[in-house]
Amino acid sequence: MPDGSRNHTEVVPEVVFLGKLVERIAAGKIRVPRFQRAFVWRQTDLHALLDSILRGFPIGSILVWDTEENMESTRRIGPMEISPRPDGMIGYLLDGQQRVSTLVGTLRLTDGMNATVDQIDWRVYCNLDTREFHRASAEDVGPQHFPVRSLLNTAGFFEACRRIQSEVDDLVQSQKWLDEADRLANAFRNYQLPLIRIRDADLDSAVTVFARLNRTGRKMAADEMVSALTYQKGQFHLAQEMNNFKVELAQKRFGNLDRVFLFRAVLAALDRDIYVKDWADIMVKPEVREALPSAFESATEGIRHALKFLARLGVTSDRLLPYGLQLVFLGEFFRQCPQPTANVDELLNRWFWVTSFAGWFGAVRLTQTRLALSEIRNLATGVETRFSVVNLETQAQPFPDRFDGRSARVRTFLLYLASLEPSSLRGEGALNPGELLSRPGTGAVGRVFSNLPQRADLIRSPANRMYVDRDYVGQAFRALTDLRDDVLKEVLLTHGFPVGSIDHLRSNDRTELIEARLEALINGERDFMVERGVVPPQERTAGTIADSDASDEEYVDIDYGEADAEDEETPIS
C-alpha cells in the first residue's frame, strides 16, 4: 500500500557500459520481478537489437526500482539461471525486460545452458562478411560466423579468434575477419546505455512511474500492467488469471479474442470506465485492489453466460463475432442478470443483430458507447425495459461489395451463411463453420472461382465465397462439378446458390453463376434480417462498407489464408 510518509520519489539517471549492466544482472543485483510478463520477442527481434548495438544506435533506457524489499523475482532470464538475491539494495527491472533478456541470453550463453528457451535459439552469430546477425546449426557455422556469446568474454573472444586462424589458410582473409571481429567486440564493449533508477519509493510509486512511461508505447497488455500495479506477494495476479481464462475460451473457440476485451469486462464489473487510460490512478486505490478478485470472477461468469447466449444465435467462434465489445456488453448484462425473462432475451437477441448488421459499434463515439453500456446495465437490473441509445430501428448496412474477414459486416454475413447449415463438398454431412473458422489460416471461406476475366468486382464479392471443408485447397468449383446432380442440388441450396445454378455450373457460366448467387444472397440475407427484427437496407444491391466497420480497434485480425491478401487493401490494426 502507498506509504503516506513518502512524498518524494528520487529518479536517478546514469549511463552504464553494456558489459557492466549484463554483469550486474548475472550477479542477481538487477532482477526481474515476478509480476513482469514472460519473454515475448521473436528471433528477428533479437537480431535487430544486436544490430542496433553494432551500429551504435540507441536502444532505449532501462528502468530499475532500487529497494531493500525482498520481492518475488524470476530465477531465469533467457537461458541463464540468475544468482540468488544478494543482501542489501536490489534493483528490480520495471522496463526493458525484453532487451535485457536478449542481452543476457546471447552474451552470457555457455556450453552448459539450454540454448533453446522460450522458442528462441540463443546461439546467435555475426557474419563477419556481411555484419548480419543470425542463428545457425553447428554444421552451418563457418570461420566467418563469430559467436555473440564470445564478444564480452575475453577467453571466449581469443578462442574464437584462434578458430579463425586455424581454419583459414588464406592469411589475408584470416586477418580481414580478425580485424572485423575486433571492431565487432569493441562496438559491444564500448556501448553505453541509460539506466534510470527509482529510489526512495514504494512499489506503488515505482510502478506508477513505469505505467506512465509505458502508456504511449503500448508495450504491455492492460491486464499485465494492472497485475504490476496491484501486485502483492502470494495474492491475486490478474494476468495469470486472465491467461487461465484464455485457455478456457480457446476450448470454446474464442481463444483469438484480444485480452483487452476481457480486461474491459473486468473494468465494467468494477463499475469503472472501460476506456480508462491511466491504470495507475485507478489501480493503486485500495478499494479497487480489494475488489479486483471478485470483479474478475463476476466478469468471467458473465462472459460464460454471454457465450451460451451467443451460441444460440449461431456465434460459435470469436471469428463469427462482429464486435468484441458485444461480448463485453453481454457479459456485463448476464453478470447482473443470468436468467432474463423471455421478453428481455428476445430484446437482447434483436440488439445483437441490429448492432451487427448496422455496424453500430463502428459508427459511434466513445460517449455513446459508454451510454449504451449504462443502458444495458439498466436493462439487466430492470430499470429500463427498452433500448434508446442503441436505436433498434437503425437500418442495416448494405450487402458488402467485397470480402474482408476483418469487417464486422462481413462476419455478420458469415453468420447468415452459417445459418444455412452448409454441406461438406466431400459428402461428409453438414460443415461446422465455428470449428472451421476457429483454426487460423485455414481458408475456411474459400473462393468459388479463383478468376473471373474482366469481373474483378465479382472475384472480390462475398458471393464468390463459401464455407469449405477442413484443409480444402483450390477453387470450390472443381469440387462442386464432381458431384452428382441430385447431390449437387442439395449442396448448392445450403450454400445460398439459387435454383438453376446447376445449369450454370455444368456449362461453366461463371459470371452468370456468381451474379445469380449474389442476388440470392442479398435477398436471403434480407429475409434473415426481417426475421430477427432488423430493418433491411433500402437498396437491394451490394455497397461499399466504411472503414469504421472494422470489427474493433484491438481485435485480432482474421487470417483467411494468403490468397486473400489481394482483397484486403486497408489493414486494420
Question: Which key features would you list for this structure?
Answer:
573 residues; alpha+beta; 3 domains; five-stranded mixed β-sheet; three-stranded antiparallel β-sheet; 16 strands
Q: How do you describe this structure in short?
A:
With 573 residues, the chain is of the alpha+beta class. It has helices spanning 18-26, 43-55, 97-107, 154-167, 171-189, 203-214, 222-229, 238-251, 259-269, 279-283, 286-312, 324-336, 342-357, 360-363, 366-381, 408-419, 433-437, 456-460, 476-481, 485-494, 501-506, 510-531; strands spanning 10-17, 30-31, 62-67, 76-77, 80-81, 90-95, 116-117, 120-121, 124-127, 132-135, 145-147, 192-199, 399-400, 445-447, 465-467, 542-543.
Commentary on this structure:
By secondary structure, the chain is α+β, with helices and mostly antiparallel strands. It has 3 domains: 10-199, no CATH class; 221-381, no CATH class; 399-567, no CATH class. It has 22 helices and 16 strands. The protein has helices at residues 18-26, 43-55, 97-107, 154-167, 171-189, 203-214, 222-229, 238-251, 259-269, 279-283, 286-312, 324-336, 342-357, 360-363, 366-381, 408-419, 433-437, 456-460, 476-481, 485-494, 501-506, 510-531, and strands at residues 10-17, 30-31, 62-67, 76-77, 80-81, 90-95, 116-117, 120-121, 124-127, 132-135, 145-147, 192-199, 399-400, 445-447, 465-467, 542-543. A 5-stranded mixed sheet has the order 1-12-3-6-2. Helix 9 (259-269) packs parallel to helix 12 (324-336), helix 11 (286-312) crosses helix 12 and helix 12 (324-336) packs parallel to helix 15 (366-381).
